[in-house]
Design brief:
Strand order of the largest sheet: 2-1-5-3-4
Distance between the termini: 47 Å
Number of helices: 17
Largest sheet: 5 strands, mixed
Number of strands: 20
Helix content: 25-40%
Shape: globular
Strand content: 15-25%
Length: 481
């Protein structure tokens, strides 16, 4: 059985398919049809809802794509839809009213999703600036308004001194009710000959996975859910890790960051961007805010996609994975995790428990570049990460990772060899660019041709060199946004 609040209503569900998405649950079980299906792949944002989660004595609000969220992820949370925003006396929520006042809706299909993204923004950043607004709305697409009236509505909300609504008034009550639900032990949802387990500790997860090695691990579900929504496959057995508390923690020391594999990308942002500002810049372009609010660092690694954004960066940073199977724990350099296309060194019954990211050392220079057809909410054609140690004008250490260039995220070993021990100058960089031809034989697909990938990968190294020269030269198109 799972328990959650649908706005203020306690819902208990025990005979329900774990493959059911929150979007379908709302439309077919809860008679809430304001939430729309646009793409069923987390791209358009029409299905955006907000999840309220207890953090101490407060509620944190996250916008998520309901088309990619399975109902099992709702346990212990508050689910808020566009129908729930109006006050008990029937008045529109200030966010809804702003959309009316600034004519932010035309056909209206995308409007509920925009409103829910704006609602979450109003809760998390009441005095949001333009950057905050654009980030919050980047995962919502509209074909009618041209976005300006929607952005104007969001600006108007941010200018209000204090946004009072029923969610603020009843926050303490919601906190108490969610805390009561959290006292439940192992949660199991069964229905339609399928089952989903929701452990609350890594030890419990390890035991479950030994008992059910054929189960699929579900974290944010932003990739796994596509098997159901796009390919119409069934997932008979799932283990949901989103409630494993110790795998959502982040520990920081002087030497490293230890990030729980189930910690969301949004929650990992501050620590990663402090140590590596370019990693933070990449995370801003990592799909949409809705995806980052669900997707996890462990999940992005574990799905072993050759175009995942985090793996090439972590390879360049010499990150290590903590893998667990039962009571056995081992560490593995992330570059050794990827064996071939979608094949990893992870054993049956084993899972990624933590990701260890070393902090930068003296004279270390790190940059990462993502090439995609859109700035926001798009997948990489090429992602290049460069981590060089330069002392007295000479390259003493080099780690370079690429995504989109091979069947796996991969180090550029020949390129690194051409750099190490050489003077950091134009001639060395040109030689290293040429050496990339020995590292990769990229393929052509609908994102880019092999010629484009080979050329741009080399040019990204040259771009890194230019940025290291401290020239008054703008090299990043994102600086003009």
């Amino acid at each position: 059985m799972i328990k959650f609040l649908l706005n203020q209503e306690l819902r208990e569900e025990k005979d329900l398919s774990p493959n059911m998405t929150v979007l379908n649950y709302l439309r077919t079980r809860a008679a809430k049809t304001g939430t729309k299906e646009g793409c069923a792949s987390g791209d358009c944002g029409a299905c955006t809802v907000v999840l309220g989660e207890r953090e101490g004595d407060r509620i944190s609000y996250r916008s998520v794509n309901s088309c990619l969220t399975f109902v099992s992820a709702l346990h212990g949370k508050q689910l808020i839809t566009v129908e729930d925003l109006k006050s008990k006396d029937g008045r529109l929520h200030p966010v809804q009213q702003a959309m009316v006042d600034f004519h932010g809706s035309q056909c209206g299909f995308c409007t509920p999703g925009f409103i829910m993204s704006m609602f979450a923004l109003s809760k998390n950043k009441p005095a949001a600036d333009k950057h905050d607004i654009l980030e919050a709305l980047a995962g919502n697409l509209c074909r009618c308004t041209g976005y300006r009236p929607i952005v104007d509505a969001a600006k108007a909300i941010a200018e209000q001194p204090q946004l009072a609504d029923d969610f603020s008034r009843y926050e303490a009550e919601v906190v108490a009710r969610l805390a009561q639900i959290e006292t439940d032990t192992l949660v199991t949802l069964e229905g339609d000959d399928k089952v989903c387990f929701s452990p609350t500790s890594s030890a419990e997860l390890a035991t479950l996975l030994e008992q059910h090695p054929d189960a699929r691990l579900l974290a944010g579900g932003t990739d796994l859910a596509l098997e159901v929504t796009q390919f119409h496959r069934e997932l008979p057995k799932i283990i949901y890790v989103g409630n494993v508390a110790d795998m959502k923690q982040l520990e920081e020391t002087d030497e490293q960051l230890v990030i729980g594999a189930a910690r969301t990308l949004s929650d990992s942002y501050d620590a990663l961007s402090r140590s590596y500002p370019d990693f933070g810049e990449l995370l801003h372009r990592f799909a949409s805010l809705q995806i980052r609010n669900q997707g996890t660092l462990g999940g992005n690694i574990g799905n072993a996609s050759p175009i995942g954004d985090a793996p090439p960066v972590l390879i360049a940073l010499n990150a290590r994975l903590v893998l667990r199977k039962g009571e056995r724990v081992r560490e593995l350099p992330i570059e050794e995790y990827f064996l071939s296309y979608k094949v990893t060194a992870q054993e049956e019954g084993e899972f990624i428990e933590k990701v260890i990211v070393p902090k930068p050392a003296a004279n270390q220079h790190f940059k990462v570049y993502k090439l995609s057809k859109r700035i926001d909410d798009d997948i990489s054609a090429v992602c290049g990460a460069f981590n060089l140690t330069i002392e007295n004008g000479k390259v003493t250490e080099a780690r370079i990772g690429f995504g989109g260039m091979a069947a796996t995220p991969k180090r550029a070993a020949a390129c690194e060899q051409a750099l190490v021990g050489q003077d950091w100058n134009h001639a060395t960089v040109k030689a290293a660019m040429k050496a990339l031809d020995g590292d990769f034989q990229p393929l052509s697909d609908f994102r880019a041709s092999k010629e484009y990938r080979a050329k741009t990968a080399a040019n990204l190294l040259y771009k890194f060199f230019i940025e290291q020269q401290d020239l008054k030269l703008e090299t990043r198109v994102t600086s003009y946004v």
